[in-house]
Design goal:
alpha/beta; Rossmann fold; 2 domains; 5-stranded parallel beta sheet; 3-stranded antiparallel beta sheet; 14 strands
Length: about 450
């Protein structure tokens, strides 16, 4: 569709000018009424965070997302863009995206007076109407609000000319959404500069007699103050936000698995039962008394673990010539040392980090084994070992070699079905299932196991 290129043509279309918050409210109501997803890609917040968020948006409130690291706060902020109109008109060349019907800056008002209905209009996509800043201690008022531009002064403009102002990030996101990450890290004197933005809805730059009305939704994120200890949100600023919404980690294992599958970039196949082990490992660490729970265990821990497990399978395939890289239980222990830096341990646990990881991994594997294969007859596996057989496996053992050692196992088809691999499971997937059963039998004390130099021997 051809979009109007002048103010007069825009008027002729009977275009209706709405504020950003009215625009978001209308589009959210439409999404809720139609049953479509207003926040795509957000997992585990459906019954907790999203209702609070929807109420804040419908009320037209700026808000703070408060939660530990890796709870999806930034991701949630960025999905708000989908609630904006796909295209919106702006005065051509305006630095702060003035609407042609109500220009705010000095330049656009002058152009309107000169050009009238011939005022040039351009269109911005909603993706261009989102701005974001990671708050750091060195962030200045000029970065957020604006400052005098010495280049424009050098070009001959006087210091009293409002057009000498270089606008900061917030006014440049006028008629859009501005996200401020880690708000407590912003120096208190800089937080004061946001008072007018949130209450009077304008900005003031240095000594200029300039009151620039802003149309912006301001969203901030923060970690709980008792963990960061790097700063705080000053009380008057907290009072100006309309809502404080607490985020959380996924409450169900299934949600954690969906999140891992959605976000992880897997270099090789990782069956769902292994992703479930990773999800349970992550949840176990979040509940462990050995872990500093004020810090939390980020969802990025689980995502990185899944990616590293898949990389381990790919490495095995490259070294052994295996045709199909599929992750197995043996790939899990080797990735734990690389994840050490993503978790903060309690004082007194120094030197026991890998021991704690290993214990939680065994617990997660055993829980997944019980949950997935509960009530299933595994006599076909245990009988094999009652006859004195020993199976050797490790992270460099080909899946086909593992299957050759096992031979024909009665009941394997039912195991594959329970693990979601079905009748058409590949040899690599079958080897992954077999090794998972062997480890589960060992952890539930129905099978012996000995590990030497990275090689595991399962026996009777």
């Amino acid at each position: 569709m051809t979009r109007p290129a002048t103010l007069g043509a825009l008027r002729a279309t009977r275009h209706h000018h709405r504020s950003v918050k009215d625009e978001i409210r209308d589009n959210l109501i439409a999404a809720l009424s139609s049953g479509t997803t207003a926040f795509p890609g957000i997992v585990g917040f459906e019954d907790t965070v999203l209702p609070q968020l929807e109420r804040a948006l419908l009320a037209g409130h700026d808000f703070v997302l408060l939660g530990e690291r890796g709870q999806g706060k930034t991701r949630l902020m960025r999905t708000l863009v989908s609630l904006l109109d796909e295209w919106t008109p702006v005065v051509d060349g305006c630095e702060i995206n003035d609407h042609p019907f109500a220009p705010a800056c000095t330049r656009c008002r002058r152009l309107l007076a000169e050009a009238g209905d011939d005022l040039p209009v351009t269109w911005k996509h909603r993706d261009e109407r989102y701005g974001e800043k990671l708050a750091t201690p060195d962030t200045s008022v000029g970065d957020l609000v604006g400052d005098v531009d010495p280049v424009r002064v050098a070009e001959g403009r006087t210091l009293g000319d409002p057009e000498t102002i270089h606008y900061g990030l917030v006014p440049r996101t006028n008629r859009g959404i501005f996200g401020l990450n880690e708000l407590p890290d912003l120096a208190e004197r800089i937080q004061v500069a946001l008072f007018n933005v949130l209450e009077e809805r304008d900005i003031q730059v240095r000594g200029y007699t300039l009151r620039l009305p802003l149309d912006v939704l301001l969203v901030a994120s923060a970690n709980p103050e008792d963990y960061t200890n790097r700063g705080r949100i000053i009380t008057p600023l907290k009072d100006r936000f309309g809502a404080e919404i607490r985020t959380h980690y996924p409450s169900e294992v299934a949600e954690e698995v969906v999140l891992i599958r959605q976000e992880a970039k897997l270099a090789a196949a990782v069956p769902d039962h292994l992703l479930e082990v990773v999800a349970r490992l992550t949840r176990g660490l979040r509940e462990s008394s050995s872990i500093d729970q004020r810090s939390g265990v980020s969802a990025r821990f689980a995502i990185t673990a899944a990616e590293t497990v898949s990389a381990s399978a790919l490495r095995r395939a490259a070294l052994t010539g295996e045709n199909e890289p599929v992750a197995r239980v043996c790939d899990l222990p080797g990735v734990l040392p690389t994840l050490h830096g993503k978790v903060e341990f309690e004082m007194g646990e120094e030197g026991r980090e890998l021991e704690i990881f290993g214990h939680q991994l065994r617990v997660a594997t055993a829980e997944t084994f019980r949950e997935r294969l509960r009530g299933l007859d595994l006599a076909g596996f245990t009988t094999r070992f009652a006859e004195g057989a020993t199976i050797e496996t490790g992270e460099l053992t080909r899946g086909s070699d593992l299957l050759d050692q096992m031979g024909t196992v009665p009941g394997l088809a039912k195991v594959l079905d329970r693990l979601g691999l079905g009748d058409a499971a590949s040899p690599g997937e079958a080897a992954s299932a077999v090794e998972f059963v062997l480890e589960g039998l060992y952890l539930t004390r129905r099978l012996a196991k000995e590990s030497v130099d990275g090689i595991s021997y399962y026996g009777g």
